[in-house]
Amino acid sequence: MKLGVKGIWFYGLAGSGKTFASHILNKKLDNSFVIDGDEVRKHISFDLGYSIFDREKQIERLIGLNRIVLKNNFFPICSSVLMTDKIFKQCKNENIKVIKIVRSFDQIKKIRKIYETDKDVVGKDIKENEIFLEKIFNDGTYNFKCLINNYVL
User: Fold this and answer.
1) What is residue 66's predicted lDDT score, i.e. its pLDDT?
2) What is the mean predicted confidence (pLDDT) over 95-112?
């Protein structure tokens, strides 16, 4: 992995391409471990809703899982919809690179109906935190896959 980072954390709106990017890296890296926020919510954080408080609790659990993965000498590839300054700083301390995946909202709305039907949705009802960090733009083409592959030596 470039820059000697110990893990990667993708964050961005639902439908931006976080899971896709995670699976690309997972196939390319030895000793990697995917921590998908949706899977964690399904199997661990099922007690949480989608309020901002619950979403912040969810990413606190995700950073804890990242630490367990690191402690066991694996490379965590994590994804979440939300990122806070607090968790971003913790990632930096753990040498986990945080990357925001950005995609056209028009493209996202076509593949994720939650923006029309659900409430407490980040990017609709819950404002995204703007953290100044690296961004990868998902244009919905092969170019996005190439950008993700650039993170692998």
Assistant:
1) 98
2) 86
Domains of the chain: 7-149 (3.40.50.300)
Q: Is 128 helix (H, G, I), strand (E, B) or coil?
A: coil
Mean per-residue pLDDT over the chain, rounded: 88
The pLDDT value recorded for residue 153 is: 47
Q: Is the dihedral of CA 120, 125, 126, 130 positive or negative?
A: positive
> Between 89 and 131, whose confidence is greater?
89
- Between CA 26 and CA 115 the distance in angstroms is 28
67: left (phi over 0), alpha (psi -120 to 50) or beta: alpha
Q: Could you give the dihedral angle defined by the CA atoms of residues 82, 96, 149 and 109, in that order, rounded to the nearest 10 degrees?
A: 0
Nearest to residue 38, comparing CAs of 56, 14, 16, 54? Answer: 14
| Chain length of the chain | 153
